[in-house]
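Case study 2.
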Amino acid sequence: MRVGLLSDTHDRLPAIEGLVREFVAREVSFVLHAGDFCAPFSLRPFIAHNVALAGVFGVNDGDHAGLRLAAAKGMGMEIFEAPHSLVLGEKKVLLVHEIGDALDGSILAHDIVVHGQAHRASTATREQTLLVNPGEACGWLHGTPSAAILDLETLRVESITLPAAEWAR
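Prediction:
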């Protein structure tokens, strides 16, 4: 199973749309979002492309009720308070916005931790746990929207960046 990883979309619809299209083209139908959607309208590309999503709220997500209502319009979309634990395939996944929320010992009870906030893509291993920050989907701070695809069988992480023509509108 291939899972899309996103964080820090910050309302930038052209970048979100481009990354969701890229996920669909690469046969990803489920996305983990590590927070900072910002506004409910940022979920429109997921709904339009029928991409299922599990996400957590980030520090810039003020309208929790609105985001939950928007998610309810999509198929298989739900947003949770962080940290949120789920099982995908045979892997136990922890989804957080801030990595500090996972470093209290609960991290070691998971195979994978997906986090955001830093706006920089990174992949590391702590003991037997894979830590992934897919970077900033919005591209506001570092100039290029980024995301990742995780193969749950091999735990291989593939980074994705969008060419400017896809989002610089």
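Helices lie at 13-25, 44-48, 64-72, 164-167.
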